Amino acid sequence: MPDPTLDPAPDPRHDVRPTLEAVAARAGVSRATVSRVVNGGAGVRQPLVDQVRKAVDELGYVPNHAARTLVTRRNGAVAVIIDEPEFRIFSDPFFSRQIRGISRELNAHDAQLVLLLVEGRGDFDRVTRYLAGGHVDGVLAFSLHTDDELPAVISRFRVPTVYGGRPERTGAEGGAGTPPVPYVDCDNRGGAREAVRHLVALGRRRIAHIAGPRDQTSALDRIDGYRDVLPDAGPEMTVEGDFTAEGGARAAEELLDRCPGVDAVFVANDLMASGVLRVLRERGLRVPEDVAVVGFDDMASVAESTDPPLTTVRQDVEGMGRLMVRLLMERLDSGAGQWPASVVTPTELILRDSA
Amino acid sequence: MPDPTLDPAPDPRHDVRPTLEAVAARAGVSRATVSRVVNGGAGVRQPLVDQVRKAVDELGYVPNHAARTLVTRRNGAVAVIIDEPEFRIFSDPFFSRQIRGISRELNAHDAQLVLLLVEGRGDFDRVTRYLAGGHVDGVLAFSLHTDDELPAVISRFRVPTVYGGRPERTGAEGGAGTPPVPYVDCDNRGGAREAVRHLVALGRRRIAHIAGPRDQTSALDRIDGYRDVLPDAGPEMTVEGDFTAEGGARAAEELLDRCPGVDAVFVANDLMASGVLRVLRERGLRVPEDVAVVGFDDMASVAESTDPPLTTVRQDVEGMGRLMVRLLMERLDSGAGQWPASVVTPTELILRDSA
DNA sequence: GTGAAAGCGCTAACAG
DNA sequence: CTGTTAGCGCTTTCAC
């Protein structure tokens, strides 16, 4: 018995929220019946359903999630894990859009989005513990780098997962007993091919590529696309950037110093392309007259506001986010048996003024 | 190099997660003792503590969150509610940064981040139900507009909340019985003053303002700051934009048509300022020679890559996110009694080339 | 200091 | 169809 003289501050969390019991009493039925009604009302006679619904409304009953999870072993939540160094998430609208798509689709499935941002080893352990705790039904994992340990952890805890972007080890390459790894990615290689072919069709002869960091499969795939069309381009025609505007500018400087005769550049993302345009302008080179530029992503905030507006390869980021959720839900609903297939979404070349 | 701490390959039977009971059996103690150890180990003799810890490690025990929540009524999760029409979150790095700060601080407090994106009435009901369900210990709410209903819902369910950005109705204005509304915001008005004073010091005489949407307090506060310095500026010198680059461009067109003699513009955010710069360039006006431009936010991806780089008012977005979490945690730890005070963080004028 | 026992609110057999 | 009865895994008095 608490000492009344202490007069403990009332805690709002302990507000008496009505329970199933209360609703049952009010409706004059058993807890089980109320439970059935709350969960869809299948197999309950209509008059009773109405009685219960009425009681629920009058009491403002809302099921206790923790109690439900405890018995069903389902928590109605999905973790989104983004493992990305600070500089990118700070400046890249990519994640906002992807998350928007995920959020929408998750809402449609009545599931919650738990956001896990990973920045280093410490965070990594924390996420590991979280997954081990089985707090989420599934995982959507992003921005994996080729040296990432996350897939290992995820597969160790057998948490149903869908990756955003092709992970380094695909199912086909996995060792024995390794389940396939479902992912959603855009057709990076095909999109890159289309971009470079466009440059070729424009009559450009010395087409360079400013690539993304080689520890990301999207960057590698775009390089492959470039090489598909230009198998004979020398290695000096490809410079590696870091997907930031500043990195793009640095890469452009290096490229122009190295190959002054370049008349076109396929840049692996729009952010870098904006840096490239800046350098080109500083050097007095006209775009697209002297040098044509094509980006990748079609990040509206960047591509539409550069000078000149950027011709670029569009990928449907939001759609990819939604697709990831659908694949995961498919997996969850199928019991643990079925692994959904990966999906590669098409890209589209958007013509503006830079090429 | 693999980290050995990740290695303690736990019980091979992954599907059966060990419970307190199992740990107790293994350590030769009661469930209660294990519980005490797991929760800090206060009041348990050292040898027993060690035994239990050992058993926990060997079994790879991780507490079941749902069970714990059920009895403690604490879920160790905080909801971040962002109520923003799609166009902004799609193009504004602001949210990414704010969320990064929140995520970091939440991690430090061992709490989870549940992201709730609100886009319309339907979503609104869903969020309401979620909060009513008491699934989170607290709420961090963003991007409130003056006509927003969220504060009403939040206050109805008494969920501890901290707002990002000053809500329309502050505690001081609230009616009787309405608790004060703690928020974290930057000094919008002071920052705007500093920006405009800088323009004045530059010798500019016809200083215009391109404002944000009037249903957001940050936009209103920046207008106030502009007027503080220039109380005699005519109403034609202020044009309302929508915080997007495109909207900034439109506003600039309107402004230049209306007041051709303008020699400086204080723009309410960097995104709009980038649109303004584009229009200025298109009209053959040099920046800063003919027209000086100052933005607001110091969004690196925008301000550093415009031509010329943008002089702007910096606000510490990540720091504000962290601060919000700290205020909320303070509130949570203090029982229900204390309401933390709001915090207004300082801004800083960053000089680049546009003014 | 430690253990036994009573639930937290809900679902899911199993009876009736 | 509906009610009864067990727990889900954990914390928390309350005895010892």
From TrEMBL, chains A, B:
UniProt GO molecular function: DNA-binding transcription factor activity; transcription cis-regulatory region binding
Regions annotated as coiled coil: none
Keywords attached to this entry: DNA-binding, Transcription, Transcription regulation
The keyword Iron appears for this protein: no
Superkingdom of the source species: Bacteria
InterPro entries (alphabetical): HTH_LacI, LacI/GalR-like_sensor, Lambda_DNA-bd_dom_sf, Peripla_BP_I
Entries under Gene3D superfamilies matching the protein: 3.40.50.2300, lambda repressor-like DNA-binding domains (1.10.260.40)
Domain HTH lacI-type per the UniProt entry, residue ranges: 18-72
Keyword match DNA-binding: yes
A matching Pfam family: LacI
Protein name: LacI family transcriptional regulator
Species, as recorded: Streptomyces nitrosporeus
